[in-house]
Amino acid sequence: MRFRDRADAGRQLAQMLAAKYAGQDGVVYALPRGGVTLGAEIARRLRMPLDLIIARKIGHPFNPEYAIGAVTESGELASNPREVAHVRSEWFQRQVEIERQEARRRHQAYLGDRAPLPATGKLAILVDDGIATGLTMEVAIRELRRQKPARLVVAVPVAPADTAAKFAREVDDLVALDIPEDYLGAVGAYYEVFLQVTDEEVVALLHAARNRRTDMTTQSIRIPMESAEHAGELVIPPGAFGIVLFAHGSGSSRLSPRNTFVARCLQQDGLATLLFDLLTEAEDVQVRNRFDIALLTRRLLIATEWVEREPALRGLAIGYFGASTGAAAALKAAAALPQHIRAVVSRGGRPDLAGEDLPRVRAPTLLIVGGNDDVVIELNQNAYAMLRSPKELSIVPSATHLFEEPGALEAVARLAADWFSRHLGGKSQPP
C-alpha cells in the first residue's frame, strides 16, 4: 500500500475509525510532528478534540535515525535494552535529558501554557504517521495509560507485522491500514510525498482544530415528565439559530452514540441540541413501551414545552430528529404543534407508525433510510406518500439500518444539518 501524503493516510484512517468510534466521547492524541497531520484529519472526521503526546526519539550514536530509546516530557522512558547495552551509560542518560528538554520546548512552542486534555474515562486515539522500531509509540502508550482512559486505540497507516502484533496485545484496539510482513525499513517508503512537517504547520493544525466550535454551553438537565424527572443533555453553541430535540427509538437513550454523533455535527453548524430520555429505565425494560407511540409523543410534547419556557432557548426555531419509533413520535408531535415545529428529520425511522397524523404534518420532513434496509425503505415510501408537507426521501447507498458502514453516519449527519439549516433559518431557502 502507498499513501499520497500524510493527509491522504489520515483520511483513510479516519474512515476506518469512524466506522467503530463515531459519536463516542474521545480525544485524538497525535505524535508530533508527522502524526499531527493525520490526527487533524481524524479529529475533524470524528468530531473530537485534537491534542498531543510529545515523545522524542533517542537515536543510536552512529545512526541517529535508528531509535534505541524514546522519552516523553514527563520522563516516561522506553528503550531497546540490547542496543542500549552497547553504548556508554553516561552518554545515554545525557541524551535522555536532552530529548526530554526538547519535548518540553516543543510543548511550549505548540501548546503554550495550555494543559493537556485529560484522557481519564474517555476514548483515547493515539495517532502517528507510521511505526518503525515502535519505541516512540511505546512510550506514548505508557504516558496515556497512566491517565486511565476508558479505551486506548492506536491508529497508524503502516506498522511492521511483529511490532503490530506486540502493540495489539498492549492496547484495546490497533487500527492499521497496512501491516507488511516484509517491512521496507522506513515509514517514508510507504508515502509518495513524505516532507518534513514544520513547527509552524503543527501550530496551524492545532489552531484550526481548536477553532472548530468548542465554546459550547453544555448543561445536564432534568425535565419533569408525569411521574418522574427525565435526564437530558442540552448543548448551545454561541449564536445558535435553532434547536433540535432528539426523539430516540426503541431500546435507545440520550447516550446513543449514533445520535450523539449527529448532534455534534449539528452543533458545529450552529444548532442547539437536546438529547433526553423519553422513557425511564424502569419503563424501558418493558418492550411494549418502546412501541407506545402515544406515550413517546406525549413525552416529546412535554419536552417541547420545557424548551419554549427556558429563557436561554427563547425564540429559537425548533426541529425534531427522530430515530426508529422516535421518528413516529416526532411526526405526531409535529402534527400537534404545526405553528411551533419548523422541521423534522427521520433516521432509519418508522414514520409509518404515525399513521393518520401524517397528512396533518406541516413541518418540512426529511426521511433518511439505508440503501440495504429494504423493509424500512418500503415503510418510509408508504409514509412519504401520505405526507402533505414539503418532503424528501434520501437513501444512503449500501447502508444498513444502523448506518454502521464507513461514511454512512457522516452522510446522515450532513443531510440532517443541511435540512435543519435550511428550514430553521441558518440558510436561505433555495429556489
- Main β-sheet, spatial strand arrangement: 9-10-12-11-13-14-15-16
Total E-strand runs: 16
Give the end-to-end Cα distance, rounded to a whole number of Å. Answer: 46 Å
The low-pLDDT segments are: 427-431
Helix content: 25-40%
| Biggest sheet descriptor | 8 strands, mixed
The proportion of strand residues reads 15-25%
What integer is the average pLDDT?
90
Radius of gyration equals 25 Å
**Shape estimate:** elongated
Pattern of helices and strands: HEHEEEEHHEHEHEHEEEHEHHHEHEEHEH
Count of runs of 4 or more consecutive helical residues: 14
Q: Which structural class best describes the helix and strand composition?
A: alpha/beta
Quickly list its features.
431 residues, alpha/beta, 8-stranded mixed β-sheet
How is this fold's topology laid out?
Blueprint lengths: L5 H16 L4 E5 L3 H13 L3 E3 L2 E6 L2 E10 L4 E3 L1 H4 L4 H23 L11 E5 L7 H11 L5 E8 L2 H10 L2 E6 L20 H13 L5 E9 L2 E9 L5 E6 L9 H12 L2 E6 L4 H5 L1 H4 L2 H17 L7 E7 L1 H12 L4 E7 L17 E6 L3 H13 L4 E6 L11 H17 L7
Helix pairs in contact: 1-2, 2-7, 4-7, 8-14, 11-12
Structure description:
With 431 residues, the chain is of the alpha/beta class. Helices cover 39% and strands 24% of the residues. The protein contains 14 helices and 16 strands. The strands form three sheets. The protein has an eight-stranded mixed beta sheet, with helices on both faces. Helix 4 packs across helix 7. The radius of gyration is 25 Å and the shape is elongated.
Explain briefly what this protein structure is:
With 431 residues, the protein is α/β, with parallel strands linked by helices. The chain has 14 helices and 16 strands.
